Amino acid sequence: MRKSAAPLVTRVAYGSLAVGLLVLALKGYAAWATGSLALFSDALESVVNVVTAIVALVAVKLAARPADASLPYGYHKAEYFSAVVIGIFIAVAALVIFSEAWRGLVTPHPFDPDPLGLGVSIAASAVNAAWAYVLVRLGRRERSPALSADGRHLATDVISTVGVLVGVLVAAATGWVQLDAILAVLVGLTILWSGWQLIRQSVIGLMDVAVDPARLAQIRELISSNADGAIEAHDIRTRQAGRMTFIEFHLVVPGAMSVADAHAICDRIEGKLREQEADALITIHVEPEHKAKHSGIVVV
Ligand code: ZN
Ligand code: ZN
Question: Is residue 104 within 8 Å of residue 184, measured between CB atoms?
């Protein structure tokens, strides 16, 4: 969450979009050349990656906009809205797959295990695997769970495509054409799953989810070790909107402390918190000591 990470996020989003479009074109060709339902659903799976990359780009661009009079807390939540819409698109893609698969089961139609089509599909997976590797390494280097998660998602795509290709070859070799439709259903289910994850995360974000417990512990630690002169901090609340983290709490100081001194403590805490959480909006409510709850963070 350092400031320097922002251009990298943009470059990665453009990279994911380019890779997604290339893979979509290749898998689309493979589906068209073979007429396989399983490869058709595998191609629709890469639509998910393309739209996810678009959301990431929109989010980065929108979040960069400064807050204004009508949206004083900024544009960070736009990302969640677009993700919910995309989750719904993904559900529609899964329904298309299920209805195609149903037709394939009721009236089995043979497909053509065209070697060029299958080869192109393998090439598409190699591109995905390479990008997944890049994402996981970047995620580890930048300590970004989001990048690592994208990389792992892409890696599962590679595995599912390998499964589809093996299944298509088995179906071609044995003449059991329904296997193609059954594989399509399995791919449809994995698409539905990623759509559900996207919607779930976005709805939690719209509901003002707190930072995770490990980060909250870090925040409490930073407050407690940088509030010299104050007595305690309590009622700490956090919420996240995209890359922005909102932190608010009450700071108890001696009743006779001057406003200037209390403000200096607040500025010191805010400075330290911003070193840790680059995109943070911090609000501190100062109270005199008889308000101490003796249940909050004791200043060390
Ligand atoms: Zn209070
Ligand atoms: Zn101030």
Answer: yes
Tell how far the Cα of 209 is from the centroid of ligand 2, in angstroms: 26
Cα dihedral sign, 32-34-40-43? negative
pTM over 0.85: no
For residue 250, the ligand closest to its alpha carbon is 1
Per-residue DSSP letters for 49-68?
HHHHHHHHHHHHHHHTSPP-
Between helix 37-63 and helix 115-142 the angle, nearest 10°, is: 30
Instruction: Give residue for tokens 């995360």.
Output: 201
**φ, ψ of residue 2 in degrees (nearest 5):** -85, 155
Domains, in order of start, for the chain: 6-206 (1.20.1510.10), 213-298 (3.30.70.1350)
Q: Encode pLDDT of 36-47 as tens digits.
A: 888 998 898 888
Q: How far is the CA of 232 from the centre of ligand 1 (A)?
A: 10
